[in-house]
Write a structure and sequence with these properties.
Chain lengths: 277, 361
């Protein structure tokens, strides 16, 4: 009796804490963003988001995100595949290093590339004659985005591939199926939802990346400014309406990703139930 | 095809095959010869190398040295998919995101068989495994026995010459397992397909296989029919592994068993022993010894009676239709024979009174 009563009190206390926390740290700021974005009326907001530089920044963000997601999908699949299906020397090292980008501060990621590709860098004297510019240019931004979102996809795939084992692949191979067929017919259906979920996480992270990109971008308005950098620029210039209008774009993109994630989680769980029952 | 002429020839052959996994010698100079159309069991305790042998025949593992021959061809460098093999995995490894139909059709589709023929073949196989109507189900929606049969059908679909089964009954509950054993034996006999299955369960091997290959510590201990292994074990391991074997040190304490050499152990099996109730009229009563019943275990079709004799707890079977004995009861025990293990050799010693009697007659 007492225990049940205590449990009920605890339950409500925990619920209230969670909601208050969410309200103070998330909902309130979000409302503030929208209110500030519309401070100068609807026309001010529209002007803010249709600003030439805002559009260019959005475009660049989307571009960098798409490239990063593509690169990491390919890399993630390859890494997860080789880590779970083969045994080789250096497997542990590979598996550990994949996680490095999440543990290292993004600013360091940016600096690493400046040191590698910058004027003092080891590769500069080879790349410069070829006309390849990485630092303070779009390739640098893409590179930084790829770096910080590196492990998202492989980390989603590895546990699932490990749990599956290699029996089904061996069975298919014994029946004469080639590697690509095995991947398409046996492995891919199995990791489909995890892969999509990884893509969603990767997208979310790529869109919002600030630190590493900030170091590498050079902040050239309309050229190398992504949305987060552009927002910061406006904010530093006391253009609050513009900054928050641009922020709202990023927020909308994040909400789309969040909804996608919910749908995927739901669908994936359903199918997992079918396969496990 | 002149089947008779090929019956005795080896169809699957391993010659001096070795395989290491790091420091572990999984297969140690193994020679195996399996004739066409036989149903063979690879029997041994876990870690004895039986699964490794099976996987090497399938091409899933590659021997470090030695040769593997199938149907007169050396297959060491031929990929598993071209060896004409159907493989049933211990976990079944059914493609979980494909229906039963697509699972069975998979191998045929890879071979680019026309869809119409595939349909005929799959329908035929579904009938064979009594799973008609399940073609749209997913593996997760099947019972253990059904999964096993679908895995069997999938392995058979591309018309393999050899069927390999890795612990085919391990994942199934006891009741269904017995049914499936009989079913599998009938099925393989009907299809006349050369089959090799791996098991650690001697009852399973004895009941299902035409021939058993006993493995231990990566070596082949003995190959032969179940009866041969049972009555003429060639190595101490086989003598102890097969049957319900009890090692006895002081075998010469038993009446009518002489001492042979030092440092030998004898093995007594329940089927070598008869237990008689006092007063029962039997042939060898005069040469029997008295012992006390310590335990009785009901085995369904018989009782296992455990009696204490010269310090050993000896088991014997007694039919349920014979007069019952009780724990603590004094009974007469007659032992027909024992296996004698000296060094690495096995011999059979019989009760001396049997010889005397035969002389008398």
């Amino acid at each position: 009796m007492d225990i049940r009563k205590e449990n009920r009190i605890l339950k409500w206390v925990l619920i209230i804490i969670s909601f208050v926390f969410l309200a103070v740290f998330l909902i309130l700021p979000l409302i503030y963003i929208i209110v500030t974005a519309f401070r100068d009326g609807l026309s001010g907001y529209i002007k803010g988001i249709t600003d030439e530089y805002a559009l260019k920044a959005t475009g660049l963000t989307i571009k960098a995100t798409i490239i990063a997601v593509l690169v990491n999908t390919i890399f993630g699949l390859a890494a997860a595949w080789c880590i779970t299906k083969y045994s080789f020397k250096g497997k542990k090292i590979l598996s550990t290093f994949i996680d490095l980008p999440v543990t290292v501060s993004p600013i360091i990621a940016g600096l690493i590339y400046v040191l590698t590709f910058g004027r003092q860098g080891a590769l500069y004297k080879y790349l410069d004659p070829l006309g390849i510019k990485i630092i303070f240019a779009v390739p640098g931004i893409v590179l930084a985005t790829v770096f910080v979102t590196f492990p998202f996809i492989s980390r989603e795939l590895i546990p699932i591939l490990t749990a599956q084992g290699t029996d089904e692949e061996e069975a298919a191979a014994l029946m004469g199926a080639g590697t690509f067929t095995i991947f398409r017919k046996v492995t891919l259906p199995h990791v489909k939802w995890a892969l999509l979920y990884g893509v969603v996480l990767c997208t979310a992270r790529a869109m919002g990346e600030f630190g590493a990109v900030s170091v590498l971008s050079g902040h050239l308005r309309g050229k190398t400014n992504t949305l987060p950098l552009y927002i910061e620029l406006l904010y530093q210039g006391y253009d609050f309406t513009g900054a928050f209008a641009a922020s709202s774009i990023l927020v909308i993109m994040a909400i789309i990703v969040l909804v996608l994630r919910l749908i995927l989680e739901h669908k994936g769980k359903k199918e997992l139930d079918v396969s496990r029952r | 095809m002149s089947e008779n002429s090929t019956v005795k020839e080896a169809y699957v052959e391993l010659k001096k095959v070795n395989k290491h996994f790091k420091d572990f010698h999984a297969t140690d100079n193994v020679d195996i010869s399996i004739p066409k159309g036989r149903l063979v069991a690879l029997l041994g305790p876990s870690g004895s190398g039986k699964t490794t042998i099976l996987r090497m025949i399938a091409g899933l593992e590659h021997p470090d040295s030695g040769e593997i021959w199938i149907d007169g061809k050396k297959v060491n460098d031929i990929p598993g998919s071209e060896r004409g093999i159907g493989f049933v995995f211990q976990s079944y490894a059914l493609f979980r995101y494909m229906t039963v139909y697509d699972n069975i059709a998979f191998g045929l589709r890879i071979k680019k068989v026309p869809e119409k023929e595939i349909k005929e073949k799959v329908t035929e196989l579904l009938k064979l495994i009594s799973c008609e109507g399940l073609e749209k189900r997913y593996p997760s929606q099947l019972s253990g026995g059904q999964r096993q049969r679908v895995a069997f059908a999938r392995a058979l679909a591309p018309n393999p010459n050899i069927l390999l089964l890795d612990e085919p009954f391990a994942a199934i509950d006891a009741k269904v397992r017995l049914e499936l054993r009989t079913w599998l034996r009938e099925m393989i006999t009907k299809l006349k397909i050369t089959s090799i299955f791996v098991t650690h369960d001697q009852d399973e091997a004895i009941e299902v296989a035409d021939e058993i290959i006993v493995t231990n510590q990566g070596r082949v201990e003995q190959a032969g029919t179940p009866r041969e292994l049972y009555s003429h074990p060639k190595t101490p391991f086989v003598a102890q592994f097969i049957g319900n074997s009890l090692p006895v040190k002081n075998y010469d304490d038993f009446r009518f068993f002489e001492k042979y050499e030092d440092e030998v152990t004898a093995i007594i099996r329940p089927e070598f022993v008869n237990v008689y109730k006092k007063g029962e009229k039997v042939q060898f009563l005069s040469s029997a010894e008295e012992a006390t019943v310590e335990d009785i275990i009901f085995r369904g079709s018989s009782f296992e009676i455990k009696v204490r004799l010269h310090g050993n707890l000896i088991s014997a079977y007694r039919s349920i239709i014979e007069p019952a004995v009780e724990v603590g009861e004094k009974v007469d025990v007659f032992i027909y024979r024992m296996f004698l293990i000296k060094n690495e050799e096995i011999s059979i010693i019989s009760n001396q009174s049997l010889k005397q009697e035969s002389v008398v007659i």
